[in-house]
């Protein structure tokens, strides 16, 4: 791959992305490095991050607030799709990568850069998500991944940075690798690499231990409009605040922890811990509302679509043609998915206890077993005869042998 003159680097302020700046300039001959830090609601103060990039040799240090886009254009679409990778992980980290890449590509185009860069290693999923998303958005941009090629240990990486004035971490490094954004936290590495080790309570920040949760249940009502969450307890609320408030309420009851061994795209199994309180409950509530408002055939068919959709996000194919085609299908299914779902939160459980919709397909007069029953029971005999006819013919043919 040819080298670049001006590069926009995805920047977090950590050791690897900081060392990428002098490495790109001194080892790969890049003339100018512009850094971009995306504010995804990770809770960090980004001004020190911006200043650190400049001290590390960046010609310009950008901070972009993408929280609202993150929720409206990425998280809400995943909720409409009930997207759970391997039926468990709601893709809180994976959803951020195509958005960060979009910001990188837009900055590259604005500043006349001929490449973008990231600090991903060759072992994880994020490298695929950045590279493939960038190729989809602007196939003419080069994609540089210094950490995938430099072959330095962490100690060597720190020493390399010190040569160019990047201070080494002053505090003892946590054994865990943690990624956080508005939708949740992912925790891996350290003792967690043994899949038989129980996660220590210290790793959790967004969810309480069951012993510390309230002794009384709390109810929350989530309103949806065309599959998009719009209200909490009857009040309209902007998308970012909705996620933030729901994270706090749900996490307070110990709901939202996931401990799983997942299959990475590169073929490695990885033990991951996730905290995604709001996202898990929103998907659960949304799926329940669909059971009230979608016909049986759409509901059943959509399940397979949801699995494919989740895999596409996890595998870095957010901007792929198939993802776009599935988006059109999912949006069509959401036209009737409006209503309110009531959730009971108590001691680590989120239980759906009620749902209501003007578009409900539930018909009390047909469902009841009471005196109001309007279902024609006599019609069942003929229906069963026709329905079972293929099975009856097959059985007769088998018995005739």
Automatic annotation (TrEMBL):
**Subcellular localization:** Cytoplasm
The biological pathway it contributes to is: Amino-acid biosynthesis; L-arginine biosynthesis; L-arginine from L-ornithine and carbamoyl phosphate: step 2/3
Q: Which domain of life is it from?
A: Bacteria
Write down the SUPFAM superfamilies for this protein, in alphabetical order: Adenine nucleotide alpha hydrolases-like (SSF52402), Argininosuccinate synthetase, C-terminal domain (SSF69864)
Protein name in UniProt: Argininosuccinate synthase
Residues annotated as binding ATP: 10-18, 38, 119
Q: Give the Gene Ontology MF terms in alphabetical order.
A: argininosuccinate synthase activity; ATP binding
Q: Which family does it belong to?
A: Belongs to the argininosuccinate synthase family. Type 1 subfamily.
Where along the chain is L-aspartate bound?
A: 121, 125-126
Any GO BP annotation: L-arginine biosynthetic process
> What does the UniProt keyword field contain?
Amino-acid biosynthesis, Arginine biosynthesis, ATP-binding, Cytoplasm, Ligase, Nucleotide-binding
- What is its quaternary makeup? Homotetramer.
Taken from the UniProt entry, a GO cellular component term is: cytoplasm
Residue ranges of the TM segments: none
Q: Which InterPro entries does the record match to this protein?
A: Arginosuc_syn_C, Arginosuc_syn_N, Arginosuc_synth, Arginosuc_synth_CS, Arginosuc_synth_type_1_subfam, AS_cat/multimer_dom_body, Rossmann-like_a/b/a_fold
CDD domains cross-referenced by the UniProt entry: ASS
Substrates-to-products reaction catalysed: L-citrulline + L-aspartate + ATP = 2-(N(omega)-L-arginino)succinate + AMP + diphosphate + H(+)
Q: Name one Pfam family in it.
A: Arginosuc_syn_C
Residues binding L-citrulline = 89, 125, 129, 177, 186, 262, 274
Listed EC numbers: 6.3.4.5
Q: Where is the Arginosuccinate synthase C-terminal domain?
A: 176-394
Task: Say if the entry is tagged with keyword Ubl conjugation.
Answer: no
Domain (Arginosuccinate synthase-like N-terminal) ranges? 6-167
């Amino acid at each position: 791959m040819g080298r670049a003159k001006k590069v926009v680097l995805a920047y977090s302020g950590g050791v690897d992305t900081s060392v990428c700046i002098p490495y790109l300039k001194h080892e790969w001959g890049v003339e100018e490095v512009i850094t971009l830090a995306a504010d995804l609601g990770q809770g960090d103060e980004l001004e020190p991050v911006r200043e650190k990039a400049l001290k590390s040799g960046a010609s310009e240090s950008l901070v972009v607030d993408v929280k609202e886009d993150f929720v409206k254009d990425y998280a809400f679409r995943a909720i409409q799709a009930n997207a759970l990778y391997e039926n468990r992980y709601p893709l809180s980290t994976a959803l951020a990568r195509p958005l960060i890449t979009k910001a990188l590509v837009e900055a590259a185009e604005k500043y006349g850069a001929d490449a973008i860069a990231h600090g991903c290693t060759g072992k994880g999923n994020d490298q695929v998500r950045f590279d493939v998303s960038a190729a989809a958005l602007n196939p003419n941009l080069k994609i540089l991944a210094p950490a995938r090629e430099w072959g330095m240990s962490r100690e060597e990486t720190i020493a390399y940075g010190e040569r160019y004035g990047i201070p080494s971490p002053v505090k003892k490094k946590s054994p865990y690798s943690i990624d956080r954004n508005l939708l949740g936290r992912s925790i891996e590495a350290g003792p967690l690499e043994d899949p038989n080790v129980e996660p220590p309570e210290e790793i959790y920040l967004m969810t309480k231990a069951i012993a510390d949760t309230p002794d009384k249940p709390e109810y929350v009502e989530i309103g949806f409009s065309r599959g998009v969450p719009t209200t909490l307890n009857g009040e309209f609320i902007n998308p970012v605040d909705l996620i933030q408030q729901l994270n706090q309420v749900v996490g307070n009851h110990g709901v939202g922890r996931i401990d799983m061994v997942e299959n990475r795209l590169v073929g490695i199994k990885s033990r991951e811990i996730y905290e995604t309180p709001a996202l898990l409950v929103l998907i659960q509530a949304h799926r329940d509302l669909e059971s009230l408002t979608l016909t049986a055939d759409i509901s059943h068919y959509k399940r397979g679509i949801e699995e494919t959709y989740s895999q596409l996000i996890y595998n870095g194919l957010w901007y792929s043609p198939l993802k776009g085609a599935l988006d059109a299908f999912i949006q069509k299914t959401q036209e009737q998915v409006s209503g309110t779902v009531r959730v009971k939160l108590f001691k680590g459980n989120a239980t759906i206890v009620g749902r209501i919709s003007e578009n409900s397909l539930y018909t009390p007069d047909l469902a009841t077993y009471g005196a109001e029953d309007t279902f024609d029971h006599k019609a069942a005999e003929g229906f069963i005869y026709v329905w079972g006819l293929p099975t009856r013919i097959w059985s007769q043919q088998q018995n005739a042998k």
